[in-house]
């Protein structure tokens, strides 16, 4: 990365703009799938448990492959790795409309596709964690991260609504072909970036894969900023997995929205709006408050917002609490990502970020499965209320942690 590139405004930096466009297109496609895939499983099975399984399998690959993917992404050229992941996801998604056309589509097939796409994402994410600092320079990581989240979540606002309309017009299975096309377009945009995805100075000499993994684990545990935010993120992910897994069930069974996709898409758009506002707010918050205080506030407000969502009698009453829940959930996540990228050396970015995300996101499949089991017997509302305890626990621990210090995170 040259000093000239680092001084270029982000929106005039061609490499960053192409990276941003690729992420935006991919997010629009993923937002369509986020509506279509659980709806497809729910339509086929009418089972909250099996519907929640879609969310669970989207995170399990991170637990299985996160450490290896992080170490390999610090070894391999990042661009080919990321392009291969985009191609694999497109192929898997296309298999759903093909199977539907042949009359062979089943719920296990749909869940399997979710697992393939999620596995590809682990490796793509590992490459992207190191690619962004390499493309923009460490001095621009926070504004670049915030811009990526802000623009892509803004795209995500319309994506769920579009997904709901597509499900209504062409069916849940056929709607997935649009996401497959989005992966192809996003891959083409990444291929057009002229700057290296592996810039940032010479890499440290590699030993064995096991040694590289241990180095990433050691940094996560020994660096107080990374360790604290990662461990506290587990409660956030447990609750997040529960909310995401049951959003379709909550919309249909408790808020009375139609299974055809229109109303459900709006509910997903509310969640995307909360994420957008979090990305918009983060640079302003970090300019005024210590990052530890930001996480404490977000974790404290989050369970209250979820409880208000659980008792909401109708969609209008659920809108503001769900928006606030999404805002605080996302703020906790992106605050942790920005902090990690700031304090982590470039040659450790993939390993540290995938390791930290693997731990922090480890609660997502467990939260999804527990919530699914609770909803199967008691309904989505009680499940949401019970699962708010997970993030409440993180909030209590955060108030007793080093995050309270004004200087927490100011020194790498």
TrEMBL record:
SUPFAM superfamilies: MFS general substrate transporter. Gene3D superfamilies: MFS general substrate transporter like domains (1.20.1250.20). The lineage of its organism: Bacteria, Bacillati, Actinomycetota, Actinomycetes, Propionibacteriales. Pfam families: MFS_3 (PF05977). It is found in: Cell membrane. One of its GO terms (cellular component) is plasma membrane. It comes from the Bacteria. The chain crosses the membrane at residues 16-37, 49-69, 81-103, 109-136, 148-174, 180-197, 229-252, 264-282, 289-312, 318-338, 358-375, 381-399. It is a multi-pass membrane protein. It comes from Kribbella sp. HUAS MG21. Keywords: Cell membrane, Membrane, Transmembrane, Transmembrane helix, Transport. This is MFS transporter.
